[in-house]
Each structure stands twice: as C-alpha cells, then as structure tokens.
C-alpha cells in the first residue's frame, strides 16, 4: 500500500506521475518515489511527503515518456529512504512498485539469499522483483513470462507495476486482492491504484480483475490471466469530474466533504424514493425481491466507519422490516467458521469497495451459499463486481481519510434498504411509509440547517482542544453515532475517545469521569430521552463536562448541560443523519486547533487493501 501511478505514451511521464501522486496523497503514506526511463532506468525516492520527493529531484534531469511512481504506507520495514518504492532487481535492470503484502516473502527471500542475492531494503516488494530476475536468469524466459511465473509462486495480495531497462516501451501491471485501474488514451496508457490520477487525461478505464496481468505498450494493451489466457477487457466510462478532486475554497477536504452532505444525501435518494406514493425503488437489488421476502437473517459485514453505519442499519432493518440482523467486523468474521445458509442475506459495506477484510468476508459467505449485496461508493470497484447485487451511495469521491459524507451516505442507503425490504415483506403500512419517506426527503435541508451551527461548535471545540480523553454516549440508534463521533475525534485529533451505550456508563466508564472529562451525549427527543437525561445527571454529579446534542427547543437538557448543540426536529429513524453532523465539525475544529493534519492523519490509510 498505498498509491500507484504509471504512464506510457508520448508526453513527459514525470509531471503526470508526480501530479498523480499528489492526487493519491489522501490514501495515506510515509514515503514516495518514482522510476523513469530516459536512455537508462532511474529511481528517485524519499521518505516523507510527495513534496519532499519533489525537493529531492528538483535539480535532476527527469525526462522520459515512460515512468511510474508510488506512495508507501509501511507494512514490511520502517518508513525510510531505503524501504521506499520503487525497488530494483539485483542487476538494476528491473524496477517495481507494489501495493499489498507478499505473505511468503520470507521463504522466497531465504532461497534467493542462498543463491547470492543481496537485498537493500526490508520489504517484501524487493523480494518479488529479485524473484522475477532469478527466474529470468535460470530459465531464459522473457520478462512477460518471468513475471507471470513469479506471480504463480507468491502468496498474498498485490497490485504491481514493473519497468525494464531492456524493454523501455513496456509496462507490466498485475493485481490480486489490491485495486488497479488502467486509463485508455490515444497512443498512451495510464495505470493507477484508483481513478483519481487518471480522470484529468481520459474518461475511459479498465479495472483489472484478480489474477490478471496487463502488458502495456504505447499503442497496444494485452491482458491475460495468470494461466496465460487472453482476456477481453470491458472499458468503463468514468463518472468523475476533476473539480470533485479539488478543495473548492475550503481549508481541508474533510471540511468540504462535511459541507457536501446535503448534496450527497440527496444524491443517494434521487430516483429511489417517491414519498407521495409511499414507494422505494432500488434497481440494483430489484431482481432479488423474491429472495428478500423469504430471508431468515441479514448479516452486515464492514470495517471502521462502515461498521458504525451497519449498526444504524441494524436498528432500522429490525424496526421496519422485522428481519433479524447481525453486524460483524469483517476482519473477525472472515476468520471464524460462521453458520451461514442459503436463506441468509449478507450486506457488505465499503466506501472504497476494495477493503481487504470485507472482500474476504464476501468470498467466505459466497462459498456458503448466501446472497451478497454490496453498498459501495466507487463504481467499478472490486466489491460491486464481486457481489450478487447492490446499491451505490453516489457520494462522490471522498478525499479526507476520516470518512464523513461516506458515513451519512451509507446510513441513507441502509435506510432505503430497510424501507424497501419492509415494503416487500409487508411489514410497514402504506400510510406509515409515506410519512417516513416524507421526513427522509427533508433530511438534506435539515442537514443544511445543522451545518449553520459551525461557529457555535467551533467555540465549544476551543474549550476542549487540550483534553486528553473524551466519552461519547448515546442510546438506540444514537449509540452507533456515539461510536462514530469518538472515532472521528481520535482519528484526526489524536485524543483518546470512546463511544458507549449510555446505559453502560455505570458498568465501568463512569470511573473515568472527573472535572477534566468532557462527555458528549446524543440526547435528542426520542423514546430513550428520559433515560439519557438521567445519565446526564449522573455525569454532572461527578463534575463531568457535558456537551449535549439535543432537539431544537429542548429546555430540560439545556438546564443541566454545560454546552448544548441544537439540531432540527426529525423522526427517530433519521436522528443519526443529523446528530453526526455536529460531531464531525467538533472533531474537525479540535484537530485544526491542535495543529493536526486533518486530511492525512498519522498512521492511517484511506483504503485498507491489506490485512
């Protein structure tokens, strides 16, 4: 991991590669490097940011119309110049960049060491390019075949690009379990780990499938699978605009994406709900209507923020569709031997559609005969291509590492799925559905109102920017919102924060409360309101500082909380979509005040494509 860019064509490669690396900065990284060919194969790499690499090569000749670049998120070997990509073969005739993990690299490395290979890094990636070199030396195979044979010998995940000094008009790209997209131009091709570096140059892309290898020349693209069978690729047209990848006047991508939520939520619903008719239409899962009427159970698998969205979905689906729901961490689910039958529906949620653990959970569930739906934001990603059916969130690209609009988009889609299943199973009346969809249709405008609280939230953030711990508490479907609020704060401000069900406070966390502890409550007017008020009183009795998210016009909580953030009145089912907005803004402002890198928090990657 984490970012790959490659180019072959008629333009200078370096400007395209370096701009692409900047576009991929949101994925998270600790070093960057490029490889170019201009009379000879050159490698330049540097620990740190892409700007550090640019400074390092500012006085270097960077010519050449073929090149590749990489931003690394360390797996094997500490962040350093020597462990940065690209890596070279022992004879310096080959270079490679790689996302993923080669699990059996240790065994391969021992064999290569015994043959006299000398390694200059601690990475699994360098082992792979030495293996390709060794196969060529021992068998006399050409580069294309040597790469294919090498990939049959490795275990793990990879997205790789390889260049050769002896074949300077060839890029070789391959993938297994880690994303890779090829941009198709006229007399030129682009390679990247996602489409963001490509969209400026072409709208036509090919998503490589697992176990496929692409042999790319300026005027020719050949794709084979690992068994050496020629594949016929499908060319997708990108629905992505360049201005979506810019900050648009905001200080950070995260803030921009927080403010995009009225639009992204509306886009999730567009063409899918008809409030006046009491109708939900989800074309992506329409052919499974019969299945939905007879399922015994729904299992939601996800990681991180997507898991929190899944917890909200659990409340909604069980409430309205009356189907039992289990929400699983994909990373744990995949290593159990879960009981799954053909009458189960598995819903896999992933913003990127490339999350490694979620992909593995899907494969496990498919083997056991379950029907798999995907909820994903990226058209053409691995999860929508692997699942039986699904629903796109249409949130647009999310560049900030800490998810914001992706969360509310996922919750919106899960809400639609809950009502759709309820509609098919007859567990909701038409009048009730009309009422609920009418309220849901108003949510984008209510989110706009919630965003107007920004200055007030910024004032609260100043008071708590130097805190070292924070609790977030909620009940019912507001408990996942508390979890998500805590995650946002710890991700970008590095303040330790925990989310709990408010009723569980007395079972441990209450011991932490003192006059230094901020406690954030989601205390909106719903069926749990009275109980949450009691929890607030318990915190105040122990001198905790209470920040309360309340329904507009609330007077009871206002009389006891230290700080109150009023959000518009809405139905209980839709509180998560509103209550999360002030928590995102609170985390954002605290992080900025602490001088943290909001869009690229330390140690985090946007898309976790390795275990």
Mean pLDDT: 90
Strand segment count: 26
CA-based shape = globular
User: How far apart lie the N and C ends?
Assistant: 11 Å
Radius of gyration: 25 Å
Summarize the structure in words.
The chain has 611 residues and is α/β, with parallel strands linked by helices. It contains 19 helices and 26 strands. Helix 15 (443-451) packs parallel to helix 19 (575-593) and helix 17 runs parallel beside helix 19 (575-593).
Overview features:
611 residues, alpha/beta, 6-stranded antiparallel β-sheet, 19 helices, 35% helix, globular
Structure in a nutshell:
The chain has 611 residues and is an alpha/beta fold. The chain has 19 helices and 26 strands.
What order do the helices and strands come in, and which of them pair?
Elements: E1 2-8, H1 13-23, E2 31-37, E3 41-47, H2 50-56, E4 66-72, E5 87-88, E6 94-102, H3 105-114, H4 124-139, H5 143-153, E7 156-164, E8 171-176, E9 181-184, E10 189-192, E11 204-207, E12 212-217, E13 220-225, E14 236-237, H6 253-259, H7 261-269, E15 273-274, E16 279-280, H8 289-294, E17 297-302, H9 304-320, E18 325-329, H10 330-333, E19 344-350, H11 356-367, E20 371-376, H12 382-386, E21 389-392, H13 405-425, H14 430-441, H15 443-451, H16 454-464, E22 469-474, H17 478-493, E23 496-501, E24 518-523, H18 529-540, E25 545-551, E26 563-567, H19 575-593
